[in-house]
Amino acid sequence: MEPHEEKPIIYTMENKPIVTSLYGSLTQQLPREPMEWRRTYGRAPKMIYLEANFVQFKEELLPKEGNKALLTFPFLHVYWTDCCDSEVYKASVKEDMQRWQAALRLHGSVDWIIAVVESDNKKKNKTNLLPRTSIVDKIRSDFCNKQSDRCVSLCEPLKESSRSQESWSSFLTKLRTLLLMSFTRNLGRFEDDMRTLREKRTEPGWSFCDYFMVQEELAFVFEMLQQFEDALVQYDELDALFTQYVLNFGAGDGANWLGSFCQPVRSWNGLLLRRPIDMEKRDLIQRGEASLLDLRSYLFSRQCTLLIFLQRPWEVTARALELLHNCVQELRLLEVCVREREFRHVCEACVNKKLKEALSSVEAFEKHYLELSHAAMEMYRAIGRLRSARLVGKSLAEFYMRKGDPQSAENFLLDSLKSYVSESWGLPLTHTRKQIAECQKRLQKMDEYLQTSALLASDTNLSDDERRHFCQEILTFATQTAEGKGQQKDARVALSMSSFTRLQELRFRPSSALVHVSAALQLELRLCSLMPVPVTLEQISASIHFTQEQPGSTAQKRAAQNPDGTVTFPAASPASGSASALELCEILEHSSSDNALSSAGVACRNMHLLMRRHDSSTSLDTPNTAPAVAMEDAAQMLRASDVTLLPGNNSIVFTAPSQKPGTYTLRQLCATLGRVQFILPHLYPVVQYEVYSQEPQLSIQPLTEHLLAGLPQQVKFTILTGHYSVKKGDALQLSNTDSMPVLHSSTCSARILSSSAELLAESALSIQSSEKVTSISLPVTPPYHTLEFLLEVLCHIPSCPARMESERLTNGQISRRSRTRFNSGMTLIDQKVSVDCPWSIYSTLVSLTFHVPFTIKHSLLSAGRRKFIQVCLRNVSDTNFRLTNQTLTENQHSPSLELCSLNTKTHSLVFRQQCVFSVWELRWSGVLPVSVHCEFSAAFAPADAPDAALKPYRYDFTLERVSTLYSVRAEIRPAEGEQQCCTGSLCRLEVSLTRLSEASDSDEEYSETDGLRSSRLLYEVMDNSSNWAVCGKSSGVVSMPVAAMATHKVHMEVMPLFAGHLLVPSIRVFKYQPRLTSPVIQPDTDSCLENDSLSLEDQAETASLRSRGSVQSLGSGESAQPRGPMPKRQAFGPGQVFSGTQGQQVLVLPAADLHLMEVNVT
Amino acid sequence: MFHYTVHTSLDVVEEKISGVGKALADQRELYLGLLYPTEDYKVYGYVTNSKVKFVIVVDSSNTSLRDNEIRSMFRKLHNSFTDVMCNPFYNPGDPIQSKAFDSIVSTMMVQAC
Questions:
Q1: What DSSP character marks residue A628?
Q2: Residue A938 pLDDT greater than 60, yes or no
Q3: Is A387 close to B60, i.e. CB distance below 8 A?
Q4: pLDDT at residue B11 above 50?
Q5: What is the per-residue DSSP string for A529-568?
Q6: What span, in angstroms and rounded, lies between the C-alpha atoms of A171 and A116?
Q7: Contact criterion met (CB < 8 Å) for B1 and A428
Q8: CA-to-CA distance for A726 and A495, rounded, in angstroms?
């Protein structure tokens, strides 16, 4: 009997061959219908299909006491009988049954059934016999005392009748129920026993193998019952138990039985999943001789079988992987030495035979290894695991390298490298690159090898020793002379510079990066050497692209250059190109004709980097795509020879060529080291400098903020020589003017400055003056230098501020050489100087503006008949002056006139923005002339220069209508009977107008009445402070006879509005013309500045009076009414009317009553 | 070379991420579980919402670290990483030099050993 029986066994006992024919249909029909199996231990009930094998009962086959075998266990015993004769039953069958029952009882088997088969033929033969039921009843009473269901009758099972069908199906149900009961009972008992056994596992002498067999038995049963899930659980439990033991062993808690698993692995046949049960291994386990791998493989094969039964094949692979790892770990834990260990992922898929074949010879192994590696790579590629594919490729490359086939290895390595570069994985990148270097060295690909070496030498992930090694490789190669192999002399190796150095900054000196032709321009290149050792370069050069200067093409300035003349190179990230940001700059284009802005925009400067296709472009870092780092030939170069680059930051200074004007653009950078050249194909950002050529220029500027007229002032001559070199004998010719002579100074010297404003020399100037021309001999000055010297000039102050003059220039041109302007209170004098320069045939016209430091004003003051002249001199400059010798003279030298100075001081200081007043009394005898011409003169000098020569200042003016014609007096008296003036009470205002002189004014208008000449006067009461209210007329016209001491008195009523000392209202007097006879001659504002202000003021006051008149007094409106042709009034000249009571005050008392009077006057 | 292992594991991470997207599975689950085991190591993956990947490589003999422990390690790592990112002085993309992050990683390493 096979131990792994597929079906549970049902032992049968029969005495008639007819029953055997039933077995076939029984075995077929038993599993037709499912049964619900209720499980112990709370396991979920399940529906199972029962199957059975029917085996002839033999007593010796019954399991002995203590036999745990479940597979061979008789789950059910069936006694078949077709006996229908009670006699026969009594005679033999009953006895036989009793014997059977006894045997069963002896073995403790309680699962039995007696089946009574009835057949028709027997019925026919023995019709007179007892009814069949009696036999069944008999059997029931004999054997099934309590379990009447243990006896079943089968009615003609081989017939198709419904009766037989019914009995047949009920028999099947019975059979299933009993079988299931037996299972439940027996399996439950078995499981209990098994659990007990497991509990004992800590006891010495417990054997895992024995337990394994027991639990596997259970698994077999479950498998037999088609309960694969349960079967798998058994194996998984065993697996877990074993794993735990191994782990405990690893932790130092060893069990004795584990010893057998610790034996060295001598052979392992691999996994065999074809057979459901590997009996060989099972025997080994049973004997306790299995090795770890044996046990594991057996366990795994069983698990796999069950998983396949369960139709979960994918779990097989998952578990296989786990198994492999587990095994490796466990072998290590158990310190099992493994002689042949060649595990790979792929092995499991390979058939045992193949593995055997692979292990048979090196060649075959290699073949298989390659095959599998390629298969794995393809598989990885197919499922999109490119990185994994590359890793397999890399290990394949390592294999090739070890085999000495660098050719095959290279591509795999480069492929891996590419992915590491693109994803910037530093350490794998370095490691792979090292392998590539080795590979390339073996392949003698020197260019690539050197490039890789350079990259490695600059790789900070490597140790210093390694970096030095790779650097030395380059140096050694570089110093080798190109001997042997017939190499060409120019066999130079061009490498990318990015691996060698990193550019940091480029600095121009001077920082403007703009120099004139053949001027010195230096470029300081700062770079960081990435090499671990100092490297001496034969030469570093930068090729230059030169573009001829084009006028107006300087629109796009060097945007990348900072104002301080530096160009900062962007720090190159390892993954350069992919992560570069947009670099935007503004572009302003000016049109070439008028330099006006013609267009403005924004441009992306690194568009070529961003817009290119990324997949097709390859980074410079990858040495396989050797970029075209050919050195381009350029006409001009920056060169620095024998430069030693130390590790880290270095600075190299180049001298830039600047022979021709134009734009110089740096293109390539090349470092030469023997046969090796490191080349940077494009300098980015663009580095440019410009060389220009310049026309000579002359400028004349004041040394101070304002040039002051009347004093010697220094002006600075600046000559930018440009491309012109000043030769000996060259001179500047200044045309002289009378109003601005050039003053000679003995200590006049010129300074020569270089273009960078360094003082080079100082030499004396020789100045020669002829009548018309001042000639200044210039010292010899090289081109593009600056010549500076100071010259003292004096601009005369014109005595009359408004006088203009025009003079004939030396070159025959008639031009206004100096022009006087008035500007913000200062008088400005523009002086034009014509200069003939040696480099030009044309004269240079330079304009200088001088400021007159003073403004002056005069006024005529009167006291009755006496006249005084006041001169006010205001210093409008920012300089303090000393002022002496202030004199006032009369121009016509009239003997009757005398000017007496009332000034006590002859010297005075006039501070900036301050005034000095001086007063003279005009005395005369006889008739005073109508106009008096005076001249004020003074001498001045800056106050802070005590020894400076005094310069004259003159001022002419004319006084007209000097003599006093009228005297006006106003008097206020309290009303009749009052002692004092009181607020709110009327007072009397008496105005008396007195003609003082008989002599008439030229423009006075007279009327002849009765042979008496009289002139009409308009008087007005002016109360600016609103202290008085005028009652009645405030103005009026009187006719004055032209006679001395003719007096006219006018009375008016005024009312004081406030108490206190109030000013007497002033009285103004005008000439009155009743009708408009002739157009009024307005005072000439241009010619007579001092009068101007007076007349303007006058009119303004009239206007204000008019507007006020209607409010102030209703009766005063006669003159104010705008009616018909306006009567014209004309002001008297200053000094013609003398007010005798100007400033007089009247005491006004508050009103006696307490009534508050409120008068609103606006 | 752990870097190779980690680098290769990105394949599986990408596969898992794209798988998640397709299946519209619980997208809040950031832990990717065991990515793939090798003979000596188990590689676990974790991906943040902004697709920052964390990978933990564990000695495969280390059985004390179960799935849950690994998950909590990742969570701790993620929290610390978030703190680093919140630092206004940190430029994303620069190597992380945070001491706090370093110490978190170190303690996890010590704990794992």
A1: -
A2: yes
A3: no
A4: yes
A5: E--SS-EEEEEEEEEEEEEE--TT---S--TTS-TTSEEE
A6: 10
A7: yes
A8: 51
Q: Which of B7, B38, B42, B51 to mutate to test the interface with A (most CBs of A within 10 A)?
A: B7
Spatial contact of A1117 and A1111, defined as CB atoms under 8 Å apart:
no
Predicted confidence at residue A128, as pLDDT, reads: 47
Question: What residue segments make up the domains of chain B, in order of their start?
Answer: 1-108
Q: Do B1 and A427 touch (CB under 8 A)?
A: yes
Give residue A87's pLDDT: 73
Question: What's the whole-number mean pLDDT along residues A612-628?
Answer: 42
Which long-range contacts does A364-369 make (Cβ < 8 Å, 24+ apart)? A369/A399
CB contact under 8 A, B7 and A332: no
In angstroms, how far is CA A714 from the centroid of its own chain? 53
CB contact under 8 A, A384 and B63: no
Instruction: Report the alpha-carbon distance of residue A692 to residue A662 in Å, rounded.
Output: 6
Chain A: give the shortest CA distance to residue B18, in Å.
11
User: Does B94 reach chain A within 8 Å, measured CB to CB?
Assistant: no
**pLDDT at position A659 over 70:** yes
Q: Which residues contact A542 (CB under 8 A, 6 or more apart)?
A: A525, A637, A638, A654, A666, A667, A668, A669, A670, A683
Determine the residue of chain B that is closest to A250 in CA distance.
B61
Domain B1-108 has CATH 3.30.450.70: yes
**Which residues in chain B are contacts of A322 at CB distance < 8 A?**
37
Where are the alpha helices (H) located in A251-291, listed in sequence order? 279-287
Interchain contact A425–B (C-beta under 8 A): yes
Q: Which of A53, A57, A54 is nearest to A14 (CA)?
A: A57
Query: Could you tell me which residues come within 8 angstroms of residue A28 by beta carbon, excluding any fewer than 6 positions away?
Result: none
* pLDDT of amino acid A249: 74
Q: Is B100 on the interface with A (CB under 8 A)?
A: no
**A319-331 confidence digits (pLDDT tens):** 777 777 777 777 7
Q: Tell me: the pLDDT tens digits for A154-178?
A: 776 666 677 777 777 887 888 888 8
